[in-house]
Amino acid sequence: MFDRRLVTNFDWVLLTVVLMLAGVGILNLYSATSGWDVYSLPFYLKQSLWLAGGLFLVLLICCFDYRHLEHFSLPAYVVTLGLLLFVLLLGKTSMGATRWIHLGFFNLQPSEVAKLVIIMALARILARTVQPSGYRLRDLWLPALLLAPPFLLIVKQPDLGTALVVVFIAASMLLFAGLQPRTLLVLGVGGVASACGGWFMLRDYQKARISTFLNPEADPLGSGYHIIQSKIAVGSGGFWGKGFMAGTQSQLSFLPERHTDFAFSVFAEEWGFSGSMLLLLGYLFLVVWGIYVARRAADRFGMFLAFGVTAMIFWHIVINLGMVIGLMPVVGVPLPLFSYGGTSMITTMIGVGLLMNISMRRFMF
Amino acid sequence: MGLDARWIELPAVQRRLLLFSVAAAGLFLLLALRLWYLQIISYDRYTEKSMRNRTRVLSLAPPRGPIYDRNGELLVGNRPSFTVSVMRQDVDDLPGLLQKLAGLLGVDIAVLRDRWEKGSRFPIYRPVPLAEDVPRDVMERVLEHSTELPGVLVEVVPVRDYLEKGSEAHLIGYLGEVTEKELSQDMFDDLQPGDVVGKIALEKTYEKYLRGQKGQRLVEVDVKGKLLKQLEVDPPRPGNKLFLTISREVQRAADQAFGDQSGAAVVLDVHTGDVLAMLSRPTFDPSLFVSGIEGDAWAQLLKDPRHPLQNKVLTGLYSPASTFKMIVALAALRGKVITKNHIVDCNGEFNLGEARYRCWKKAGHGRTNLKKALRESCDVWFYQVGLELGIDKLEETAHEFGLGAPVGFPLGGEKSGVIPSQSWKRQRFNQSWYAGETVITAIGQGYVLTTPIQLAVMTAALANHGDVLQPQVVRRVEDWNGTVLKEETPQVMHHIDIPEDAWNAVNQGLVAAVNEPHGTASAARMGNIEVAGKTGTSQVVRRRSDEEEAADRLDVPYRFRAHALFVAYAPADNPEIALAVVVEHGQHGGSAAGPIARAILESYFKGRGDVATTILEERP
Known about the structure:
The structure holds two protein chains of two kinds.
Chain A: H1 5-8, H2 12-32, H3 43-62, H4 68-90, E1 92-94, E2 97-102, E3 107-108, H5 110-128, H6 141-156, H7 160-177, H8 181-199, H9 204-214, H10 223-235, H11 248-251, H12 263-296, H13 300-324, H14 342-360
Antiparallel strand pairs in A: 1-2, 2-3
Helix pairs in contact in A: 2-3, 2-12, 3-14, 4-5, 4-6, 5-6, 5-7, 5-13, 6-7, 7-13, 10-12, 12-13, 12-14, 13-14
Chain B: H1 2-9, H2 11-41, H3 43-51, E1 55-60, E2 67-68, E3 74-86, H4 94-105, H5 109-119, E4 128-134, H6 136-144, E5 152-162, H7 169-172, E6 175-177, H8 180-183, E7 196-198, H9 201-205, H10 207-210, E8 215-221, E9 227-234, E10 241-244, H11 248-258, E11 263-269, E12 275-281, H12 295-303, H13 312-315, H14 325-334, E13 344-346, E14 349-352, E15 355-358, E16 366-368, H15 370-376, H16 379-389, H17 391-400, H18 422-429, H19 435-441, H20 452-464, E17 467-470, E18 474-478, E19 484-487, E20 491-495, H21 500-515, E21 532-538, E22 563-570, E23 577-583, H22 589-604
């Protein structure tokens, strides 16, 4: 049963913003990786292919009603836990962390899948338990139970960045669902306490990253080097920037990881404060639009789902930019639509697809 | 649904959504303020830093993993070499710089310009190597003039050091610059253009274990690009250690015995399949490839009619000639075609219809039984037994012994060879099989083609009574802490079912061939150890008349002379090693290949008189 309203309600605004951001990202990759004599396909072209694949996924996701996901979310959650376990036992190890399942043409990163699945499962739980006066602590055992296993498995990999994002997404969704003031206080204090306790559980290199962040000069060749060079790149961009393809920091390759996590440094150096502001506004618009989609959703599940996806994109942006401009430790979180990488692109586009889906079905009942 | 709709309209929820939008905007504002601080307030400071950003990150090449023999003797190590490179971003006056360097290095400026062009493909921050492996005095001259040479640096790069001077070049392989195609593969994702990787043989097969990990050096340079000081070092991690099954001693003995003849030799442990020695001649000097092989040298290697680059152990195809006769005898004994006392009267030729097939001994061998037939390599005995056996039974047994198919040598790239049969000929030539072809197949001539490694595997199976082994050349890979990363275990591919007395009958014939009067394989006779062996003389051109028997004489051109073959195992009563030797155009198995076999055996059994006390190793 095809409904004409689906087409008339197609969310062109969202799609346009996403395409503009991704387009700027690809242009920036072109600059960041120019002069890299990579014999395989150049990065910006590969990224374009990932974008095309992502767009296809968006259209695919728009074809079915998102409400089916509600029934599908718990089985998907169990499968994802299985994948996370599998990757710990048998995954592909790289740089001392085990995060991938090798599928021949693609390395599947279960922690990425986990983000989306946790959003879905949490949206389902929150949609079904209404607490008009806000959740009490004892109402939260189910979300906590849901969150703990994947979180611990991701920490174990160890993938600090993703684990952090998962916690931030869940916290945002709970806050949005509404907490009683007392609950909020207890959780806040507990969070600070466990963060301090967690410090002792971190691996040495993770501690090193955090101490480096506090004192970058101490380890110029390690992660401190990243932050120092990134700040020099961003700072020397000035108001107007050095111009496209003219970033000396990036072109002279002082910038490590400049096509992945530090892609924004290249952009900020070449387009300056003016360009950075425009990009920030673009991202802010994307986030606010996502919240707007949540506001107009036809049902509670859709609203929580839209909000969760928006939170995911939002925290990725904030953590990545914070890291690149020296506000946060280096945790290795990509900038959505901007950093090179198939996994990040596909996860983001699936999220965008869900937003579009919820947006176009807002008048269904 | 009603609930949903009402819930969303709740002022609290609406308020929260608004609150979140404001909070998001607030965090973005924080980011914007930080950008303001970095890009506007601190702009001058960072601009100056970026102008003065005179640090360079230089990559440090890791030493490749050393390769040892079975006793831990170093076969291939590394030595430091000096590379003169230029950092592109620090060069202002390129022609002047190249001019100066050409003078200092004593090379043509065109060569340097070429290297520079080639280096332009690299990312700008990678130093362009202009001269590799420069002598120490030249290096010192360059350093003395470094003030006039902005951007020039001398790097110490570990390069391969071949202690055996290429004796096992075909086994170890050589290195070369990574190609575009390789770089697009996952395995090479930590490499960049200009890096070297293993190109053939072990260097290639064990690349990922041998490569090691690059390190980095953070250095400060002055405005002219001259190195001021080193700020940080992240040292490279050397590649892992590779332990081979090769015995340096046996390898050297074979190498010396070969002299400058062409051919191949391979020695196997008859219980484990360990390759104790393996050489292909002529060889090449792998160190030619250390600093990139020159076009002329490469062309010469390619054009050489004796094929130095070919690993003849795996890809040299030779008629096995008389070394094939044991297979005929065993097939016939197993098929009950003959008993071990089967007598054939040899008068020097064998008639089949119109055709005459000659024995190598014109006068004939007279009454001949199996033992004598093997001892004196009587062709007529095998013509007749082969004919009675039939080609298909013969083919089946030959295949069981691993002939006519790759033996699964770990380096790959093996040739199959040919064991003919009726169906093979039908497929290959679309013709039916003739009895005469069975006759010549029975003495290992005609269509039959085998590789030296196949002959060695066959001989090992003769020695151990039926275990066809997969040759092993790598024992284990270890990291520098002694952790074993990979270990190869002996593999018995399959067992050939042949009655014990048949094995014994053939073994006696092979012992007689070496140790009794009239034995054709006496060249391998040793005082202290009883050797069993068999010669072969493989015709390169078909003999059609008496005149052409001149092929046996030295006045025929080299390329028409027969190949000399020798297979042997020892000690005869409790075998430990088996070997196969092929000397190309060596005329006679006995005289050309026999001494090499003997040198190998002597080096292996050095200082061992009585071998009755040797204890058999545990079989897997």
